[in-house]
Design goal:
By secondary structure, this protein is mainly β. The chain is built from no helices and 7 strands.
């Protein structure tokens, strides 16, 4: 993702609030946003949804044609799952759900990118 211009992460601080876990994320180029845990199983599974504000993405932080939550594209959630893979090791999988919105030719897609 970083090779296509996504800023590098700087910090993610998680806190427990009345509504559950919230992670405050700061990235390069002044990008910042919150994530809310909608699934939280300690040391096993977490799924975060995103909360962006108008100033989450400063001008020129992303490619000029990319607008998160805009007319054509959105980031829905990110999910991490830890799976035992050996006696002392664990395997972490990550999946990010993206949505492309209808264009003038009516195309729409939901993607789940895994790594």
């Amino acid at each position: 993702m970083y090779r296509i211009g996504v800023p590098l992460p700087i910090e993610g601080v998680t806190e427990l609030v009345d509504s559950g876990y919230v992670r405050h994320v700061r990235m390069g180029k002044g990008v910042h946003f919150d994530q809310h845990a909608v699934v939280f199983e300690p040391n096993r599974h977490v799924r975060w949804t995103y909360e962006f504000t108008e100033d989450s993405f400063p001008p020129n932080a992303l490619d000029e044609h990319v607008e998160i939550g805009g007319l054509y594209f959105d980031v829905l959630d990110t999910e991490y799952v830890m799976n035992p893979s050996a006696r002392t090791a664990r395997n972490l999988s990550c999946a990010c759900a993206l949505e492309s919105r209808p264009t003038s030719i009516g195309m729409r897609a939901r993607l789940r990118v895994c790594w």
